[in-house]
Structure formats: C-alpha cells, structure tokens
Amino acid sequence: MKKINKLLVVIILLAACKPGDNDIKTLLQSKTIDDRIEGAYKAGESGKTDFIPYLLKNADDPNRSTQLQFKGYSVYQEKMIALTKILKIESPVKITRDPDSTVIRFFTEAASKYIKK
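The structure assignment produced for this chain is given below.
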C-alpha cells in the first residue's frame, strides 16, 4: 500500500512540473525586458534543451534590466549564459552585455542538432 502512495506522489509531482516549462516559454516570449531575462535565467537553470529555439530567437537583443535581481544584464547576455549552461560548452569569447555576432553564431551552430526544422 505504501508503494502505491509513493508512486502516486511521484506522478503528481511530475505532472505539476510541466506548467513550469510553459511558464518559462511564456517569459521568453514576453514583450517586457525583465520577463525575457528571467525566462532565460530559468531556462539555463533547468538545463533543458527544449528552450534552445526560444533562447536563439532575437538573441541579439541589447535591452538591459533595471530590476534589482537582474540589474545591468542584457537579454542577449542572459540568453548566452543560459545556452552555455544548457549545451555545457563555453563561448569562444567572453560574454558581455553587448551582443556579439561571433558568440551568437557559435551557439547557433552548436545548437543546430537540437533545433527541429
């Protein structure tokens, strides 16, 4: 009886985690800068490759946050940091606030196998 209860708890917890992915996707597609930065941060922390296409979309966004939690970070910077965490590879050059086409191209090529066409 206890095994069934434990299994039921695990199933419920797994089912409850799914909306989190949708929340992250919503944040990444938001019109507000702070939401996009938060979405990129959460995508990176999750480590899930499902978010790669969302992170590469408008990857050159130079807008910066004024929210205390992400103050000074640009959307581009947070997206590239997230891709570093998800793909487990380092950028060929340092990721700064300002968009760098070399970094974007590097991650686009590295992530090509994860993008559904």
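Interim note for the steering committee: The helical segments are 2-28, 33-46, 52-56, 75-87, 101-110. The radius of gyration is 16 Å.
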